[in-house]
Structure formats: C-alpha cells, structure tokens
C-alpha cells in the first residue's frame, strides 16, 4: 500500500492525492475505483472525486463497465491514450529525430533525418527538428504537453548546454526560447539513454550505460536513479583519457576515449564509411580503449554492470567479449563485472526524452 | 527543531528518543534539560528520564549547577569525557598506528610504529597493532567500546578485505576474529581519510578526497555522505590507468596511477629515500598522472573539489598547482575545479576510524 496522503501539508493534499491515484493506475491499469481506495487508504468518496477531476483533465479514461454485482457498475480506469502527450527531440552530430509518446509511454509517431551539424549554429538543427516535430505531432494527433530535447553534450542543471565538444557552436545554447510555444527541457543524450534502459528494458538499478556515437557518453544509474553529479554534468566517459599521448580531441584534451572508440574515429581508423566493415585491429583497439576507460569507471564507482548502447550493439558479441576481458584485467576487486549489449536500439534516448514530459504530468498532475 | 520521536514505532520510541537527546548534546553542549525539551518537542519529564538513563550509561556528564532562578538548579549536560571510547587501528604497508578518541572525538592517546608488511600475513601487522592498542588504551585510561581498523585495500560491505594490492596476503582476511574481545569493524583507509576531512576539517560536501601513500586511494563524498558504490568498493583511484603501456602494478594491471604517483614509485623514480628530495621531473610526472586520473574522475562524477591528502601535502604548493593545471586541461565542462591540499595531516584516517566507534554509540545508544 502506498503511503496515504494524510500527511501532506494543507493545500497540497489534493494534488498529492491526485498523484497517488494516478500512480495506482500507472502500476496496475485497468483498475477499479474500489481497488484504488483499498490500496491508497483513501475513502471511496475521495477517490471518486479525484477520479472525476482526472477524467476531466484528460489523464484517465473509463473502460466499458464490468458486469458484476448489484448497484452502479464499476468502470475500470486506465491512462487516457488520447490524453496529453510528450514530444521528444534528439539533436545529434549527424541527425535529428523527433517522436511523440502518449501517457503510457508508447511511441505514437517518430521521424528521423540525416543532417550534419558539426559546424552549424544551434538554429540549423533546431529548424530541422521543428519540421520533424510538426510532422510527428500531426501524425500522432495528440495534444502535446511539453518538449524534451536530448543533446550530445554537457547540460547544466539549468538546462543550458555547457559544452558539446562535437557541436562546438552549441556551447552556452539555451534551447528553450528557440522552440516557441511549448515548455522545453534539455538533457544529456546519454543520461536519457540510461533512463530508457531503466524504463523500457528493465535495466539493472546499478549500472554504467554507455552511449556510443560520434561522441561517447555515459549515464550512471545508482540505486535505480540517475546520478547527475553536483553540477548535473556527470558521466563524461568519452573524455576519460585512454592514451595520454593520443590524438587531439575536440574537447581540448588529447587521448580521450572517443578519439579511439567514437564512431568517426572508428570509421577513420578502418578507412571505411560502414561500421559493419570495420577490420579486426580497429575493433581490438576500440575494445582496449573501452576496457581502460570502463575499468577506471568501475574502480571509481563499483558498479556491477556495464551496458553498451548506441553504435556498440551493431559491432557485435565479439566486441562485447573483448571489452569484458580488457575491463576485468584492470578492475581491482576482480568481481565479475558484467558487460552487456543494449537491446533497445538507437531510439532509446529519444523515447526517454518524450517520456520525461508525460512522467512529469503523471507525477505532478 | 529535530523531528519529534512520536513517529517511531512502538518499542523503538525510547531508543529513538535517547539518540534525539544525545544529538542535542552533541550539537550544542553544554546544554540544559529545558533547552533539550524545547528543541526536541519532548516533555520535561521525558527528557529528565532519558537523561538519567544516559548519565547512568556513562554517555552524559553533568556540569556544576548554573546559578539562576528558584527551584532545582538546572545542571548543564555535556558528553562524558570519561565515557565509552573508540579505538582506531591503522594498518599500512609500512607502519601500524593506534589511537583512542573519547566521546567528543578528541584524541586521548596515539602511537605509531614503522613496520613493513608487504609480504607478511595479516597476523604480523595485527600483532604489532595489538601491542600499540594495549599501550594507547592504558595511556587513555578509558573504557573502549569497540575497534575500527583502517586497511589500505578494498573492503566489502561485510568488512572482509576483498583485496589489498600492496598487502597481497591480506586478500580475504577477516580482521574481526583476529583482534579478540572487542567488536571490530574494518574500513578502507581512503574512505576514512575522507570522513576525517568532513568531520574534523569542515571539508566540502561534494569532493574527491585523495589519500596518497604506497598505494593511492580515494574517498568519494557526495552530498555530505561517503559514496561506497553498490559493493562498498568505490574509490579505487590508484588503479585508474594513466598510461596503458606503463609499468606492471601489484593489482595485476599495468600503467595504474599508483605506479607513477604512489610513494614507492616516486622514491624509485627520484632515486632517493626522501620524499622532500624528489627532483622536479618526478614531481612533473606525478602531477601529469594525477591530472589524467583525476580528470577522468571529475568527468565521470562532476565533483567540484579535489582534496589531496596523505603524502601529497608534503610535496607542496607547486605539486598542487601543477595537478590543478593538468586536471583542468582535460575536464570537459571547464568549470573551475578546485584542487586543495589537506590540512589534516597523516593521522586523519586513524582518528576517523576511532571516531566511527563513538559515533555508533551516540547514534544508537
């Protein structure tokens, strides 16, 4: 049973109870008013009144009445599939994407376009993103409650892009005012990819989620929650040094992980434009570099699982096994650190971005 | 005002209230019963009864009566300087040490002896530690409530030494049964050094505390609390790779930080037995290696402060400044990460070990 709303302070009680009722529906839909009352400790009358408000706000939906005993039939409740939706936008070095999810987190429309933003100001990618956003909104036909933007860079707690080494003109960008109309939040792509594993793939509660692209990021999940660090900028695995005398990096350092194991670095070293055609020596070097950086992260954080996402699942089981071996060579406590490939595919961060919008609505109705 | 004890479950209420009263004394000694009642929300009668029990248990002490109004004089209360004490033991690669702290955390006796344990089984160092412990107990003349042992290795949540690369025969050692009589806990030396900075030097609540010795460890403090990781083994900074082709390390890896910036490595590279006589090129290499490893830690954890303790303060301001420069070159978000030298001196971990014992008594009387 959830904690009853009785302890919340005066004016917040109703709001708290609305979230409590929604939480029951999220956990166990379809669910009756009577079950909600039994599980929350609220009276039947209070639950009915809260449910009316949530039906009115378009957050809940009533299914056909269940046949049963005497009296008024108890129509089971579920989240409204036509209710407020979330719009996710993904800005990447080489593409933009947009998707709409409904209140249940299901993807209702998605679109993606190749587009190189390496030397472009934020407005270029955002204009393309706005076009895609318009298309997916039209396709989904839902009211969008807000927008969350995934950015491959360091995002501060205020949502401003601190620095995106692979999108140098995005430093200091405040995405909010650039997408007019809707409330906008901005988050780091790898953090969102980690949340996607937690939310949509039953990912482990203590893990380092690696997101491989042109850059390499990581989302750190501890005790089932995203760890953001004191300034909200944790998880910059791509700039952990794997070779102090290695090539210059766009971050201003040199020998960073992403200069060996990022997508562009892999393609350059393999003299190919196709990730599936990378020669063995390039994959070996990538596994070695990932092993060095990840061993450092495991030695510091003591996480039991590493999940490789983004481009890495495409590189296959051989890469996974090699990374695992390289990592274990260098982990002090020698426990069996697991290395897994993500099964979610590249759309995870985008879907998680959109889902953050609806989760906000459900947590704070 | 602290939260009143009223919410604690049935049989635990008195215990909870005892801790509440003790907490008030810790925060503001000397303090009167009336002030404790006002600050905890407990009745005067309840406070008096709890105080009697704490006086009887030797945790509190009554000062001379304050002159004042009519009625029974209100004797101010303080922690009992003759009450239960904590014994700390430090096992290091090249020495052992022991100290006794009283309930206030003040050091009442301390002793240290040089002794090389590199290839010895745990019993050797523990026998020496037991001798020192006997001496400091006799000198302090206090009843010791328990022992905490600081070990320069990875300690699991069960207190067993998982692995101490510089004390290879300690792997798997369970210190508890080896020190007879008293309840024993075991903890990582760098974690205790970090707690020492927090408890005794007003250290910052988000920081990486580096402890330099033969090995190099780190205690990670986030939000004012020690971060131990899922398995209690976080903070193994010394085995973060700073040069993938570097020298072999006792951990089985190679190119680890402590092979460049640990005490033995520094003395070997400087061809000296005196840390104060290290040539500039050795200090430069150490600063570079610390910069690489710490930049990785800051990129991953986003901590705003690094505190260098153990041997590093002896190496001076020039080392601190060089580490800061090397670190900032490689930190992605380019915020001004501070690098400080610890002002606590080498006894911090030992004192914190002893203090963990008395803190337990005060938190769970």
Explain what the structure shows.
Two copies of one chain form a homodimer. Chain A is α/β, with parallel strands linked by helices and 365 residues long. Helix content of chain A is 38%, strand content 20%. In chain A, helix 2 (33-40) crosses helix 3. Chain A starts with 12 loop residues before the first helix and ends with a helix. The model of chain A is unreliable at 1-8 (pLDDT under 50). The interface between A and B is large, with 47 and 47 residues. Chains A, B: It comes from Pseudonocardia hydrocarbonoxydans. Chains A, B: Residues 20-62 form the HTH marR-type domain. Chains A, B: InterPro entries: ATPase_NBD, HTH_MarR-typ, ROK, WH-like_DNA-bd_sf, WH_DNA-bd_sf.
Itemize the secondary structure elements and their pairings.
The structure is a homodimer of 365-residue chains.
Chain A: H1 13-28, H2 33-40, H3 44-56, E1 60-62, E2 77-79, E3 85-91, E4 95-101, E5 107-114, H4 122-140, E6 144-151, E7 154-155, E8 161-163, E9 184-188, H5 189-200, E10 207-212, E11 216-222, E12 225-227, H6 258-261, H7 263-270, H8 280-301, E13 305-310, H9 312-330, E14 338-341, H10 348-363
Helix pairs in contact in A: 1-3, 2-3, 5-10, 8-9
Domain HTH marR-type (chains A, B): 20-62
Pfam families (chains A, B): MarR_2, ROK
Organism (chains A, B): Pseudonocardia hydrocarbonoxydans
């Amino acid at each position: 049973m959830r904690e009853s709303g009785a302890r919340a302070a005066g004016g917040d009680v109703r709001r708290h109870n609305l979230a409590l009722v929604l939480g029951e529906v999220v956990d166990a839909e379809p669910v009756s008013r009577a079950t909600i009352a039994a599980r929350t400790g609220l009276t039947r009358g209070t639950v009915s009144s809260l449910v009316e408000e949530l039906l009115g706000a378009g957050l809940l939906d009533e299914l056909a009445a269940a046949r049963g005993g005497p009296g008024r039939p108890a129509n089971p409740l579920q989240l409204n599939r036509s209710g407020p939706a979330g719009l996710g936008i993904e800005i990447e070095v080489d593409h933009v994407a947009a998707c709409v999810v409904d209140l249940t987190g299901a993807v209702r429309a998605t679109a993606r376009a190749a587009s190189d933003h390496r030397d472009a100001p934020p407005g270029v990618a955002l204009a393309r993103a706005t076009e895609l956003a318009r298309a997916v909104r039209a396709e989904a036909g839902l009211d969008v409650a807000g927008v969350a933007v995934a950015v491959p860079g360091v995002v501060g707690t205020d949502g401003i892009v601190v620095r995106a080494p692979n999108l140098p003109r995005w430093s200091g960008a405040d995405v909010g005012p650039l997408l007019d109309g809707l409330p906008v939040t901005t988050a780091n792509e790898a953090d969102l990819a980690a949340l996607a594993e937690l939310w949509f793939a039953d990912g482990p509660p203590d893990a380092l989620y690696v997101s491989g692209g042109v850059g390499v990021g990581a989302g750190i999940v501890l005790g089932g929650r995203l760890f953001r660090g004191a300034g909200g900028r944790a998880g910059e695995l791509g700039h952990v040094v794997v070779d102090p005398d290695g090539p210059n990096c766009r971050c201003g350092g040199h020998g960073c992980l992403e200069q060996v194991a990022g997508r562009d670095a892999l393609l350059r070293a393999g003299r190919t434009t196709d990730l599936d055609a990378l020669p063995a020596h390039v994959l070996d070097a990538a596994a070695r570099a990932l092993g060095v950086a990840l061993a450092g992260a495991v030695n510091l954080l003591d996480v039991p699982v590493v999940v490789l996402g983004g481009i890495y699942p495409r590189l296959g089981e051989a890469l996974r096994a090699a990374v695992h071996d390289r990592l274990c060579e260098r982990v002090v406590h020698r426990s069996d650190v697991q290395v897994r490939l993500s099964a979610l595919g590249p759309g995870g961060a985008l879907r998680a971005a959109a889902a953050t919008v609806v989760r906000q609505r459900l947590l704070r109705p």
